[in-house]
Amino acid sequence: MKKAIDGDNVREALKNASNMICELRTSLLSPKNYFELYMQVFNEMQHLSGFFGDKNRHKKKMIDLYESVQHAGNILPRLYLLATVAAAYIKSLEAPAKEILKDVNELCKGVQHPLRGLFLRYYLSQMLKDKLPDTGSGFEGEGGDINDAFDFIFTNFNESNRLWVRIQNQGPAREKDRRERERHDLRVLVGANLVRLSQLDGMTMEFYAETALPKILDHIVSVKDQMSQQYLLESMIQVFPDEFHIRTLEQMLSAYARALPSVDMKPIMVTLMNRLANYLSEADPEKVQSAGDIFTLFRTHLQGILERALQPQGATGAADIAPALEVLAAFMQFTVSLYPDQVHYVDIILGSAADLLRKFNETGSCALSEKAVDQVGELLAGPMKTLALGVLKMEHFAALVSFLNFETRKQVSLSMVTAIVEEDRPLNSVEDVKALFNFISPLVKDEADTPADEGKDKARFAEEQQKVCKLVHQVRHEDTDVEYQILTEMRGFFGQGGPQRLIFSLQPIFFGALGLVPKIHAREKRRQEEGDEVVPPPAISLKKVFQFLHRTNTALMQSSPEVALQLWLTASVVADQVERVEQQGGFEPICYEFLTQALVLFEEEISDSSKQYKGIHAIVGTLCKIVALDPENFDNVSQKITRHAAKLLKKPMQCRAVSACSQLFWCDARRDAKRVRECLERCVKTCEAVVQSDPAQTGLWVEMLDRYIYYFETNCEEVDVDFLQRLLAICLEHINFALRDQQAEKEAKKAQAHLESTVAYLKKMKESRSPRTRNTISRHLLLLAMH
User: Fold this and answer.
1) What is the tens place of the pLDDT at every residue in 224-244?
2) Where found in the cell (predicted)?
3) Degrees (nearest 5) of the Cα angle 682, 686, 691?
């Protein structure tokens, strides 16, 4: 062919070109390989096109050349040659472009083989793309106008799409999946026509809205093929300008509602929404205003699009609501980005989702799929991040949550709790707290669908409950009465949680109420200084707060006695501090009541020796800090706990516990040296019995020495120098004996190190300003030196 062209031989050039094009008649190649062959033919045909365009070489009239190529024997080469000559014919201006375009377009309908016809149409589009009577082109006027240019491309698009769709029916049914993949690879041959349309200079907004778009959409919807509609609807959004979409939004959305139910509307809607959101965010305010109420347009037409999801689909005949929910989630993001201040728009979208789910349930379909549940969660997550507690005031938010299963509701509840805590949002309204706890009820109490094994994973359960407990620390209000009401409301919800939750939830409520004590006291002080008119008296007094603490901790006693014991002791210390400040005697009975409850709990609920041992130390430590207790009440509590210490099963524990109880008789509230000596003597007897039976316990003697030194240093007159010397000698004797015992050697070395530390402390005490202490320590050190 090239040789014939070089020799300006038209006949031979056409003959060889026809032979070359005949290779495209094959049915043996896959679409991918056929495309490669087509590109080779296309490149070679450009030489022939250039030859036809040079009249000085072929010296023929274009009409003669146009008619001569139609004598080719096979229709496929004939039409390829016709399209090639048509390009040169239009360029020569020897005939109106519109006539040639119409003629060649009609003739190309002669090839109806799907693959060959599709590539022929693509070739026609490529050859004539710059020969159209577009607005402002050299072919406009007698050669036609924008309507003719549009008609040519649209007809080509129409035929290309139908041929592309028919590919799926070529071949056996077992190869349908493969053909669908091949069709997908060829989609650009159809989409190229839409690109050509968007590039027309005469494609004004008015022409697009009134002429082009209605025809394009009608054709797309009329071709009942899922892949075709999916691709072409997406392509429409990509190839035409955003301002066109704003103007014709209602037309496009109406067409989407007429698409096949199997078409996945999510990518189409998401693409459209993103394009519009970006355009409007950068556009002038006038353009935004002229765009109208986009939200209402979308909402009106989305309803029909979404309800298609309720129709049975696929081989199973089951409805799949997940794609519709994905569209709503995308619409939510679009709305929030475009209208950040219109909270009621968000509620409307949530209402649409709730209605859709309600209708889905009415169809009798199975439960929501995992993907659908995830989409509902995504719909809820966006508002929660931006509005937090504000979502609880929405009419449809809670309704949408109710469609979720227990586990998902719990995750949504955790997201809400996390948002409030991490963003440090205050809880300052009883109504808000009530709405919040009703919403997060899967975390607070057992519900109808709560799994029987809830809480089996203890680490996870504890983490969830600890997050909920953090809400207590978000309670903030200037009025202590309101803060108390909020805590009372929370306490009511936590009380429904059962024993496994009460262990976690009642503790923060308890300390939250304790935090009210200094606030109420400060309020009373300001009221006394500034008057009732400036600072009104609190409706909730300190005694009511202590009553609240009593009720709360009483509920915890059965579930977690060790924790409840600590809380009773903490409350007693606070009551003691209030009594010191008030000095009216009104809080001493409260302090005593808390201590009595601690003892009752200790006696009835704590039976393990090690826990009793720890409890005794906790009670002793608390009593030593309390000073406002009535002496008789103080003695009652002290004597009871000392008796309990003396009854511990293990003698070493008993010795240490009674030693600790001796502190009760030498503290701020009481100074009774005689009772101290009695406790210490009892400890020494017990210690002697223990060490005699087990030399490994020799460290007890050093502990007793430490206790005696403490009382001597604090001027307890019943602890004399002589006994300190004897006790020191006993320590050395037993340690030396234990060091020779192989079984007790390890513990003896620990006791020896402990004694060395005690000796180092005694050396420092020698520098004491007290002559009694300085002289005594000198004698001790002399004794140690002798040993």
Assistant:
1) 999 999 999 999 999 999 999
2) Membrane
3) 145
On whether the CB atoms of residues 178 and 218 are closer than 8 A, the answer is no
At 673-729, the pLDDT tens digits run 999 999 999 999 999 999 999 999 999 999 999 999 999 888 898 888 788 888 888
Q: What average pLDDT does the segment 87-100 reach?
A: 90
**Confidence band of 385 (pLDDT split at 50, 70, 90):** confident
According to DSSP, the residues that pair with 671 across neighbouring strands are 666
SS3 content of the chain, % helix, strand, coil (to 5): 75, 0, 25
* CA geometry: angle 48, 52, 56, nearest 5 deg: 125
Structure token pair of residue 21: 């094009």
Contact 355, 396 (CB under 8 A): no
**CA proximity to 116, closest of 189, 10, 218, 43:** 189
Instruction: Average the pLDDT over 511-539 and give the result.
Output: 88
pLDDT at site 515? 94
For residue 636, CA distances in Å to 531, 623, 632, 658 come to 42, 12, 6, 16
Under 8 Å between Cβ of 439 and 392 = yes
Nearest to 157 by CA among 209, 248, 76, 222: 222
For residue 597, CA distances in Å to 507, 592, 637 come to 17, 9, 11
Query: Cβ of 577: how many Cβ atoms within 10 Å?
Result: 19
Per-residue confidence band for 785, with pLDDT thresholds at 50, 70 and 90: very low
The token pair that represents 420 in the structure block: 């409030």
Residue 772: what pLDDT?
Answer: 54
Residues 6+ apart with CB under 8 A from 334: 273, 274, 276, 277, 298
H/E segment holding residue 617: helix 609-623
Q: For the purposes of burial, counting CB atoms within 10 Å of the CB of 668, is it exposed (0-12), middle (13-18) or buried (19 or more)? A: exposed
Q: Which residues contact 75 (CB under 8 A, 6 or more apart)?
A: 110, 111
226-239 and 187-198 helices, crossing angle to 10°: 30
As beta bridge partners, residue 141 has: 144
Place of tokens 């290779």: 23
Q: What's the start-to-end Cα distance of the chain, in Å?
A: 123
pLDDT at 411 over 90: no
d(CA 271, CA 248): 16
Q: Measured between alpha carbons, how far is 727 from 685 in angstroms, rounded to an integer?
A: 12
The CA distance from 748 to 191, in Å, is 92
CA distances from 392 to 412, 434, 438, 755 (A): 13, 10, 10, 65
In the chain, what is the greatest distance between 2 CA atoms, to the nearest angstrom?
A: 141
pLDDT bucket at 316, cuts 50 / 70 / 90: very low
Distance of CA 493 to the CA centre of its chain: 25
Q: How many other CB atoms are found less than 10 A from the CB of residue 59?
A: 9
Q: Nearest to residue 193, comparing CAs of 230, 175, 220?
A: 220
Structure tokens at 216: 């394009």
Q: State the CB neighbour count (10 A cutoff) for residue 366.
A: 8
- Which tokens is 115 given? 């693959």
In angstroms, the CA 672 to CA 115 distance is 110
> pLDDT higher for 200 or 306?
200
Tell me how many helices (H) and strands (E) the chain has: 41, 0
Give the integer Cα–Cα distance in Å for 218 and 144.
25
For residue 251 the two structure tokens come to 């037309």
The pTM of this model reads: 0.70
